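Researcher: Let's continue the batch. This sequence belongs to Phage integrase family protein, and it's 185 residues. Same format as the previous ones, please.
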Amino acid sequence: MKTVEAIKDIHKLEVMKKYLEHRSSRDYCLFLFGINTGVRIHDLLNLLVKDVFDENDHVLPFLNSAQYNNPPVYLNPNVRQSILNWIEEGSLLSDDYLFKSRKANAPITRQQAYRILNEAAKVAEIEGPVGTHTLRKTFALHAYRKGIAISLIQKRLQQSSPAETLAYLGISDRHSIPIVLDVNL
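Model: Same format as before. Here are the structure tokens for Phage integrase family protein:
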């Protein structure tokens, strides 16, 4: 099994996003959800529509699950909008899987998610191996680059130490990646 890397190039991420957005609202939502939250692919695929909505049918700003409370999984406005678009386009019901297969009343498989990501990566001309775990690594790397504390990223990834998280990201020197503390008020 090949080790996958994070997608480091923002331009290539944008190419993948545009491709997936035109291809399928579901696939675009899966990609955005993964790169913006760091949630494991197994957990993403098993989300139900009701896991992301409140009792007033509004998309939650934080994932509604006890396992994602430390730190909570924030669903940014782009992720929330992609969820709404996909639910409307897919005519999904509360008890449906968020990433429902078109062929069965089940979520898409890891293999299907892998194919979706690899197809988009080829369009973006990404060189190295890309897999479902690429979403999680991409989230973590870009969170680190934006100045999110390594201890918070470590908690999100459920790793045992900051050193493990840095190794996971392939960072041997903390100062090798410029950190941008973008408050943007």
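Researcher: Any comment?
Model: Helices lie at 10-23, 25-37, 41-45, 77-90, 110-123, 133-145, 150-157, 162-168.
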